[in-house]
Amino acid sequence: MAVTIKDVAKRAGVNPSTVSRAIRNHATISDKTKEKVKKAMQELGYRQNSAAQMLASGKAGAIGVIFPPVENKSDQPFFMKILTSINEEARDKKITVAIASAHSNEALLSQVQVMYQEKRVDGFIMLYTAQDDAVRDYLLSDKIPFVVIGTPSDRANEITSVDNDNHLLGAEAVQYLVSLGHKKLAFVTNTELGEVYQERYFGFYEKARSLGLTPSLVNSEKKLTIRDVTGLVIMDDILAIKVIQELSEQGISVPDQVSVISFNNSFFASLIHPYLTTFDINVVQLGHRSVQKLAHLLDYPDDFREKVTVPFELKVRESTKAV
Q1: Residue 180: how many CB atoms within 10 A of its CB?
Q2: Which tens digit of pLDDT belongs to each residue from 222-258?
Q3: Fewest CB within 10 angstroms: 69, 74, 98, 125, which?
Q4: Is the bond leading into 68 cis (omega within 30 degrees of zero)?
Q5: CA torsion angle 142 85 292 106 (round to 10)
Q6: In what side-by-side order are the strands of the sheet with 123-126?
Q7: 262-297 confidence digits (pLDDT tens)
Q8: Distances, alpha carbon 2 to alpha carbons 42, 44, 50, 202, in Å
Q9: Distance between CA atoms of 177 and 263, rounded to whole angstroms?
Q10: Contact at 8 Å (CB) between 287 and 295?
Q11: pTM attached to this predicted model
């Protein structure tokens, strides 16, 4: 018969709840009691159980994945794909994954604090970057191991991050459209916040200017007007599909009149015609590398922080055409 926590509690002379808290290395349990629980586990043959290993190492054997504090996460396939990738790599390393998600910064911070203070996780992977972010500042100030998927705009030297070169992505989008003969280009976005937007847009803008072009910026939240533009670089695949539909309603054909290139290579990219020409940002590798770097930080907390750059690849499909 398998040994249970109740068996361990009886042998150690404590309550089952005390054993549970001792396993999580909870601060309210004294070192003396933790030793009693550990000894009871060993005597009862509970040592090979993951809980005993947690108690012996002082680690939870789990990591937290922090989603951004926004309401429309389900609209972005990136988040589910990156979470799947993180789970795959964590499973290979025998690490469990917990999720922190809320609609406000305050609620998210509270959740992250509870997860760490109650020893539910050993560290975190943040799926977003933002300036003056309370969650990030808490992790830094309390010296909690964490990795960011994205590129921090400040305090980058203190943070291990995993990302694509989004500046280069924006530049490469311009280069490809120009190679097709397009000279009137616009960048279309539904947000002007966040490092991903800034990096992709400025890469687009600087490359276009270096080629003697006069690029424009279009906010899709307003009426979509492209005038004489023949090439659109769009913030992501989801927005690209919406833009193509709106252009169709205006009687503008993609790619016959306007070429469209986007980013992320989500499953939406080849869902409806025209299939999207888009950059595959290698989400699987982003997830795997983030877990690998966090595992390294958990073993070597004083090691240098670094940025890991994951390569990307252009997938040429139906939404672009030479002029």
Answers
A1: 16
A2: 778 888 999 999 999 999 999 999 999 999 999 999 9
A3: 74
A4: no
A5: -10
A6: 96-100, 62-66, 123-126, 146-149, 160-163, 307-309
A7: 999 999 899 899 999 999 999 999 999 999 999 999
A8: 14, 10, 14, 60
A9: 14
A10: no
A11: 0.79
Residue found by looking up tokens 């290993």 in the block = 53
| Per-residue confidence (pLDDT) for residue 220, from 0 to 100 | 83
Closest C-alpha among 131, 140, 82, 76 to residue 105:
131
The label of the residue with tokens 């992505």 reads 169
Between β-strands 277-280 and 259-263, what pairing exists: parallel, antiparallel or unpaired? Answer: parallel
Place of tokens 């947690």: 54
Number of residues assigned to the chain: 323
What is the separation of C-alpha 194 from the centre of its chain, rounded to a whole number of angstroms?
A: 13
The residue type of 33 is T
Q: Tell me, what amino acid is at 236?
A: D
User: Going from the N-terminus, what domains does the chain have, and what CATH number goes with each?
Assistant: 1-40 (1.10.260.40), 62-164+284-311 (3.40.50.2300), 166-280 (3.40.50.2300)
Alpha-carbon distance of 142 to 154, in angstroms, equals 18
- Residues whose CB is less than 8 angstroms from the CB of residue 300 and which lie 6 or more positions away in sequence, other chains included: none
